[in-house]
Amino acid sequence: MYKNQNINALENIEQNETNVFLDVRTLTEYSDGHIEGSMNIDVMSESFTKKIESLNKDNNYFVICKSGGRSSTACNAMSEAGFSSISNMEGGMMSWIGKINTL
User: Fold this and answer.
1) What is the pLDDT of residues 8-59, one digit of tens each?
2) Active-site residue (options: 35, 65, 74, 93)
3) How far apart are CA 8 and CA 90, in angstroms?
4) 75 an active-site residue?
């Protein structure tokens, strides 16, 4: 199970070892602009399930995509994989008003 939050709530959340911003867009989308410190794992890649299995399931994950659709898909997959604290960041990067970093 996961909860939905407005993406701009991330402005008030400190990223650290336990609060992880997970961007599930393609590497190209991520490179064009992402939230500083976020981790990128493409939910549409064949290796998504394998990659998330290496993550700590007890951390708090704030899942980001372009508009909120793919992040919902990722949240469902993570919930099925046993992650306990997952937030789908509604509105995605299209709604983000904070600073954007590029690669």
Assistant:
1) 999 999 999 999 999 999 999 999 999 999 999 999 999 999 999 999 999 9
2) 65
3) 9
4) no
